[in-house]
Amino acid sequence: RLESKIAKKLTENSKRMLQLRRDRRLREQKLRKLALAETKVILSREMEQLSYKLEDEEKELHRLEVVDEVRRLRASAVEVSALRLEVRVRLQELALDNTVHHGNKKTEASEKATLELDQVKEPLGL
Length: 126
Description:
Layout: H1 2-102, H2 108-124
């Protein structure tokens, strides 16, 4: 009878140990799943932050490209203004030359020069 009690206790203890091992394995699996889920959440947040950062960097790049283009356009405008000024000065010189050399009378050469200057002035908006 004592032996059967001891055998019964051993069997119960063995079953209990197996159950405890199963429970421990299940808890470890749950912990791994939780850790994986937490890692996914963390990575998702990091990806979102990187996405925002990339978006901000793209906006900044576009802004810098626009600023660069504005500078180029301003430089071109300055060049055009300088050319317009040169054309005006040259026109005044030619008008003065025409008046000094020929009085108010236009010659064929001065008419040709005036026509050429008009062709130059038109695209420049003068």
